[in-house]
Amino acid sequence: MAAVTYELIKTCKQSGARLGRVHTPHGTFETPIFMPVGTLATVKTMSPEDLYDMNAQIILSNTYHLWLRPGHDIVKEAGGLHKFMNWDRPILTDSGGFQVFSLSDLRKIEEEGVHFRNHLSGEKLFLSPEGAMDIQNALGSDIMMAFDECPPYPAEYSYMKDSVERTSRWAERCIEAHKRPEDQGLFGIVQGGEYEELRKQSAKDLVSMDFPGYAIGGLSVGEPKDVMNRVLEFTTPWLPDNKPRYLMGVGSPDSLIDGAIRGIDMFDCVLPTRIARNGTCMTSEGRLVVRNAKFARDFRPLDENCDCHVCQNYSRAYIRHLIKCEETFGFRLTTYHNLYFLLNLMEQVRQAIRDDRLLDFREEFFEQYGFNKPNAKNF
């Protein structure tokens, strides 16, 4: 029995979106799902109890950052990431590839792996597919990601073709180096930029390796949303129906809905937690920057349509005061609300799939959120 399996429950007759379940060694989660990001073995300002309370079914943690601090050997000694951070639900770890390519100015890609500098200390480091597997095996996540090359956007076709071919070779090396397939599922990552032929090649290469799940990488890196949607439309048909599909690094409300419509099951992004810390909130009526002066005497909740404990108990005026004073409690409140908002949105998406009305739901949500207005403010 594979460590990670996917169960398709229903396909929305109106949109083609998928309702499913992913089974892992630490429990089952429903899809489509949003995964809060706990970069350093914590979702910033949130406790595990907060995450249970908002019904976060799976969280993501970061291989690169945990390798540097505290070190994967310490996490392993603690009994693995679940015990280290006191979280008993599923955890997904990324491969570290994205951070190597995005955080380091000085990097050199070769067939063996990537030479780069530690973004904290400047120390020279090297990460290979085998190294990424060793670190993730030590962390003990339920779902781990293959080490891939993350090309810049935009990139020339010839560069992207070489990159896709290297990512496929690295994926094979990841499978070879993965020491715990019985209790950790390894996902492959489809690359190829905006080039249909290369996305097809990447998907076919990876599907032939029979991973238990597939991610689509290299999106949400600065391309327009219509480009991302088009890439999803021509990529997902090449992925098997009986495996989960994960769109990496996407977390704006419109993109979660549009991704689900295009057959995506899993999403993650630092967006809701990052913007929360500068006082930007997601609400059912659009973006609300609670630190703005106009909320100084606004005693309404962040979102009058939200039933999270923040909106039940605290006003915009109070939260603005905390954020302006840089009080940690203010960041906790906005973070909790934003994560709750996205998790609740995904529950509404799942219900709309059950009811065969996801396209109708999209129209209603976009109308209320204000996406249909000219110059709509997005994230």
UniProtKB/TrEMBL annotation:
Pfam families: TGT. Residues 15-369 form the tRNA-guanine(15) transglycosylase-like domain. GO terms for cellular component: cytosol. Zn(2+) binds at C306, C308, C311, H337. Pathway: tRNA modification; tRNA-queuosine biosynthesis. Its cofactor is Zn(2+). Binds 1 zinc ion per subunit. The active site is at D94 (proton acceptor), D268 (nucleophile). Its EC number is 2.4.2.29. GO terms for molecular function: metal ion binding; tRNA-guanosine(34) queuine transglycosylase activity. The keyword Transferase applies. It comes from the Bacteria. It catalyses: 7-aminomethyl-7-carbaguanine + guanosine(34) in tRNA = 7-aminomethyl-7-carbaguanosine(34) in tRNA + guanine. Residues 249-255, 273-277 are annotated as: RNA binding. Keywords: Glycosyltransferase, Metal-binding, Queuosine biosynthesis, Transferase, tRNA processing, Zinc. One of its GO terms (biological process) is tRNA queuosine(34) biosynthetic process. InterPro entries: ArchSynthase1/Queuine_TRR, TGT, TGT-like_sf, tRNA_ribo_trans-like. Catalyzes the base-exchange of a guanine (G) residue with the queuine precursor 7-aminomethyl-7-deazaguanine (PreQ1) at position 34 (anticodon wobble position) in tRNAs with GU(N) anticodons (tRNA-Asp, -Asn, -His and -Tyr). Catalysis occurs through a double-displacement mechanism. The nucleophile active site attacks the C1' of nucleotide 34 to detach the guanine base from the RNA, forming a covalent enzyme-RNA intermediate. The proton acceptor active site deprotonates the incoming PreQ1, allowing a nucleophilic attack on the C1' of the ribose to form the product. Belongs to the queuine tRNA-ribosyltransferase family. Homodimer. Within each dimer, one monomer is responsible for RNA recognition and catalysis, while the other monomer binds to the replacement base PreQ1. NCBIfam families: Q_tRNA_tgt, tgt_general. This is Queuine tRNA-ribosyltransferase. The gene is tgt.
